[in-house]
């Protein structure tokens, strides 16, 4: 077997007395699509944000391609973050820049890519997410689905090894969920390693290699989608699945 | 706990500042090389408050505004006898003693009475002129007032910090005393019946009356010691050798009666040429200089204030190690201190206080003081602006691999700037107006220039109207330009 892309060991995170993550040890293999599901407040987003150190773990290790992020200085963390694209629930596009500038900013300022090359890449990425005619638009004029696709293109512009999705469709109107999920599905088919926190059970069933069921600060179950949805092992998972409409 | 640290720091700074000047005074007394120093320097800087005709006042000589009057003639003679050049520096009467003590000027000739209180702080030469006090009143009141005792229930004015002002306070009963900084303001107040009379030196009173047909002078009948009606030259405490040398000049001036024979008539001539053309358009050059300096001060101060503001706001948000914490406390203490003290005091502190260590010209001092002041306010705007940018923006930038600094520079600050643009614009417009404070240290900005025009023309209101319009044109233009950029930044 190849080396895991992400390895998490005894990860814990508390905010004051609130122990959000208690003890998590898991691996993500190259090319895997992991879907993290579970009840709200179970620590899914915090877990995802610990993977690229947007949240600093209270204890435990988070390793990316064998390097423990928690032991690195901030500069090295910055350069490892380049390899982990992240997509947020609320898009977080830069409102003062056009779509094109949003995508070009990090490659130019972080990697020092020349303007012409960055522009070319940005146009290609926009084509890939089906928004090539919105290059000069400002984020405020985009629909939620369009904005999230731009956010995905922006993350891809850094040529990441892994993509982290933090509830990418939760802030969208229902009719726009599909266009974003399609882009994500295409990415998965191209072999991108992905960790997706979502409530889209359909996406989990169709695209995920593994489903991690997370509740009460632990990963309660790690299984294939088929096994998880049809034969959940734990009471906690059974209880959760019984409450959602499938 | 954090707050207390800031307060302690401020107290320490304040204590340091009071101790330093004392030390200087003592060392000056110990070794008296005052005469040598001046002769070595080759220049004698004379401080004066040029709104006291015929002692000293501004006049247009060959198209150029300059300080003239009997005191200037005396200054020239003193410099000539010492074999050095004379340089005249003008400032408000209140600032003169501080300027002498802090080395901004070498001597004061400004119709200054050598009172016992002043003698404690400076050394005086022999008296060069013995005058008396008169009270200037409106001519229509001539029948009503005879002397100082006729003003019961009324108001008498005099220049703040002058001996006439003290005399009114001590020697009248039932009369309100009112102090103003400049003689021309007092006369204006008299003519608009805010005051019933203005006490001033006799020659000054005569100069005003001879130039303004609506005014009249009456004897004051103040009970005065000879100290109070006389004028002498002031030098720094302990400059005995210099004072002795200058006394020779003063004695010869008195012996030959030069003041009455030459100096007063010479001053009178300027007074006459002065009143020939008093239209405001005649003084357009003076106003233009005023605008120029007002804009220079404002633009420089906004520029440096902005840079300082960014640094301060970042320092105020520094967190992590003890060094950063110390930095944050320092920045917080600075901002609190600057916001808690008047800008006028800061301007005087930079000019006179820092002047003890480095000799800064008035304009530079003014720009430094206003930049330091404005920086503290801008820092607070920027901090607010940065806090107003959604944390998601920072997270998005960091997740793309951008460093803390790059995130701040390319993502957060541009948005913060947009959010605080209206506040920054306000600050800029406020500065255009507040830059007028530097007039107290003699920077020739608009207010200062208008005061010159006022004492030049004896017209009180017209110059005020002119600068009011000029200020409005400047602020209105500035706000239009700022609005234009604000619109260009709107994308959502």
Any overview of this molecule?
The complex is a heterodimer of chains A (about 250) and B (about 500). Chain A is α/β, with parallel strands linked by helices and about 250 residues long. Chain A has nine helices and ten strands. In chain A, about 40% of the residues lie in helices and about 25% in strands. In chain A, the strands form two sheets. A six-stranded mixed sheet of chain A has the order 6-7-8-3-9-10, with helices on both faces. In chain A, strands 2-1-4-5 form a four-stranded antiparallel sheet, with helices on one face. Chain A has helices at about 45-50, 75-80, 100-110, 115-130, 145-155, 175-190, 200-205, 225-230, 235-245; strands at about 5-15, 20-30, 35, 60-65, 65-70, 85, 160-165, 195, 210-215, 220-225. Chain B is of the alpha/beta class and about 500 residues long. Helices cover about 60% and strands about 15% of the residues of chain B. Chain B has 18 helices and 13 strands. In chain B, the strands form three sheets. In chain B, strands 5-1-6-13-7 form a five-stranded mixed sheet, with helices on both faces. A five-stranded mixed sheet of chain B has the order 10-9-11-8-12, sandwiched between helices. In chain B, strands 2-3-4 form a three-stranded antiparallel sheet. In chain B, strand 9 (about 155-160), helix 6 (about 165-170) and strand 10 form a beta-alpha-beta unit. Chain B is elongated. The model of chain B is unreliable at about 1-5 and about 20-30 (pLDDT under 50). Classes of the chains: A alpha/beta (about 250), B alpha/beta (about 500). Chains A and B meet through helix 2, strand 6, helix 3 and helix 5 of A and helix 15 and helix 16 of B.
């Amino acid at each position: 077997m190849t080396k895991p892309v992400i390895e998490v060991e005894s990860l814990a995170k508390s905010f004051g007395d609130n122990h959000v993550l208690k003890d998590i040890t898991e691996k993500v293999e190259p090319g895997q699509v992991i879907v993290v599901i579970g009840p709200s407040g179970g620590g899914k987003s915090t877990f995802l944000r610990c993977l690229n150190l947007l949240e600093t773990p209270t204890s435990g290790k988070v390793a990316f391609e064998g390097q423990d992020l928690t032991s690195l200085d901030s500069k090295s963390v910055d350069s490892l973050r380049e390899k982990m694209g992240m997509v947020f629930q609320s898009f977080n596009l830069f409102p003062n820049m056009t779509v094109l500038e949003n995508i070009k900013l990090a490659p130019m300022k972080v990697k020092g890519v020349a303007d012409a090359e960055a522009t070319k890449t940005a146009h290609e990425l926009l084509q890939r997410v089906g928004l090539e005619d919105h290059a000069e638009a400002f984020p405020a004029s985009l629909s939620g689905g369009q904005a999230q696709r731009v956010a995905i293109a922006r993350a891809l512009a850094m040529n990441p090894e892994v993509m982290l999705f933090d509830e990418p469709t939760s802030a969208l109107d229902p009719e726009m969920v599909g266009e974003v999920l399609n882009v994500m599905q295409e990415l998965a088919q191209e072999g991108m390693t992905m960790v997706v926190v979502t409530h889209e059970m359909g996406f989990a069933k169709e695209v995920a290699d593994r489903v991690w069921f997370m509740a009460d600060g632990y990963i309660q179950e790690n299984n294939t989608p088929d096994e998880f949805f049809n034969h959940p092992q734990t009471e906690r998972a059974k209880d959760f699945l019984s409450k959602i409409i499938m | 706990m954090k707050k207390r640290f800031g307060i302690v720091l401020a107290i320490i700074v304040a204590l340091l500042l009071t101790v330093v000047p004392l030390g200087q005074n003592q060392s000056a007394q110990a070794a008296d090389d005052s005469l040598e120093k001046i002769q070595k320097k080759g220049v004698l800087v004379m401080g004066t408050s040029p709104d006291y005709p015929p002692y000293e006042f501004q006049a247009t000589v060959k198209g150029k505004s300059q300080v003239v009057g009997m005191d200037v003639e005396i200054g020239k003679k003193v410099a000539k006898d010492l074999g050095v050049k004379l340089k005249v520096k003008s400032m408000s009467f209140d600032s003169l003693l501080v300027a002498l003590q802090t080395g901004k000027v070498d001597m004061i000739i400004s119709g200054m009475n050598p009172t016992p209180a002043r003698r404690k702080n400076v050394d005086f030469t022999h008296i060069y002129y013995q005058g008396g006090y008169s009270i200037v009143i409106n001519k229509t009141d001539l029948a009503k007032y005879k002397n100082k005792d006729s003003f019961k229930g009324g108001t008498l004015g005099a220049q703040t910090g002058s001996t006439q002002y003290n005399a009114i306070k001590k020697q009248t009963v039932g009369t309100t005393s009112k102090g103003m900084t400049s003689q021309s303001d007092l006369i204006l107040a008299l003519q608009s019946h805010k005051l019933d009379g203005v006490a001033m030196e006799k020659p000054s009173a005569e100069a005003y009356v001879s130039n303004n047909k609506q005014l009249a002078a009456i004897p004051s009948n103040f009970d005065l010691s000879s100290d109070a009606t006389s004028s002498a030259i002031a030098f720094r405490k302990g400059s005995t050798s210099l004072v002795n040398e200058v006394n020779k000049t003063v004695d010869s001036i008195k012996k030959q009666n030069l003041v009455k024979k030459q100096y007063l008539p010479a001053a009178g001539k300027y007074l006459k040429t002065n009143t020939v053309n008093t239209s405001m358009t005649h003084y357009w050059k003076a106003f233009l200089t005023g605008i120029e300096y007002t804009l220079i001060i404002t633009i420089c101060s906004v520029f440096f204030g902005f840079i300082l503001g960014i640094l301060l706001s970042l320092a105020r948000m520094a967190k992590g190690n003890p060094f950063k914490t110390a930095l944050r406390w320092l920045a917080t203490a600075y901002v609190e201190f600057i916001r808690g003290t008047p800008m006028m005091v800061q301007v005087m502190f930079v000019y006179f206080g820092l002047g003890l260590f480095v000799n800064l010209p008035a304009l530079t001092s003014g720009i430094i003081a206003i930049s330091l002041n404005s920086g503290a306010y801008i820092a607070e705007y920027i901090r607010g602006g940065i806090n107003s940018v959604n944390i998601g923006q920072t997270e998005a930038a960091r997740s793309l691999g951008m460093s803390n600094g790059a995130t701040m520079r390319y993502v957060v600050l541009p948005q913060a700037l947009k959010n605080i643009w209206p506040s920054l614009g306000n600050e800029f417009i406020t500065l255009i107006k507040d830059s007028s404070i530097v007039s107290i240290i003699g920077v020739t900005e608009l207010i200062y220039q208008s005061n010159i025009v006022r004492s030049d023309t004896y017209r009180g209101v017209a110059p005020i109207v002119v600068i009011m319009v000029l200020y409005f044109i400047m602020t209105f233009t500035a706000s239009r330009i700022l609005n234009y950029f604000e619109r260009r930044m709107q994308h959502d």
